[in-house]
Design brief:
- The protein has helices spanning 5-19, 34-40, 45-64, 76-84, 105-113; strands at 89-92, 96-101, 124-130.
- The chain is α+β, with helices and mostly antiparallel strands.
- It has one domain (5-130).
- Strands 1-2-3 form a three-stranded antiparallel β-sheet.
- A hairpin with a 3-residue loop joins β1 and β2.
- It is globular.
Length: 133
């Protein structure tokens, strides 16, 4: 099956839906990523639920993202399309492509209205592409 840029957007939306109620966290280096959260298992079932769509998004990204002049930044049109879909591009370099996953409006409203809720869902980073050359 050939993946498209639209498949990437759909998968990012799925990740946002599943991650919206997750409290932000820090790893040992102070870097908050959904990739690390899903791999760590620290969220129990929630971590497990995020593993498949994150793996799918990373795989799709590696096949559909294009870079200017082979090793330049992420193609401007693709970066703009991600932004228009609600995923702010935090890093668009050839070495890393990182997007911000913001909580859904429903998750924010639910957290604000729940007196027992001890946190408001925070935006988190998702590393879509990492070039290890």
């Amino acid at each position: 099956m050939i993946s498209t840029f639209n498949d990437l957007i759909k998968t990012l939306v799925e990740i946002r839906e599943k991650a919206s109620d997750v409290q932000a966290w820090d790893d040992n280096h102070g870097e908050a990523t959904l990739n690390g959260f899903a791999d760590s298992g620290q969220g129990g079932r929630r971590s497990d639920d995020l593993q498949a769509p994150i793996s799918r998004a990373v795989a799709i990204a590696s096949s559909v993202l294009t870079f200017n002049q082979d090793e330049g930044p992420l193609d401007k049109q693709q970066a703009m399309a991600l932004e228009e879909a609600g995923f702010r591009v935090l890093d668009r370099g050839f070495e890393n492509v990182v997007v911000e996953i913001r909580p859904t409006e429903a998750a924010l409203k639910a957290a604000e209205s729940d007196e027992d809720c001890d946190h408001i869902p925070s935006p988190m980073e998702l590393k879509l592409f990492e070039n290890s050359q």
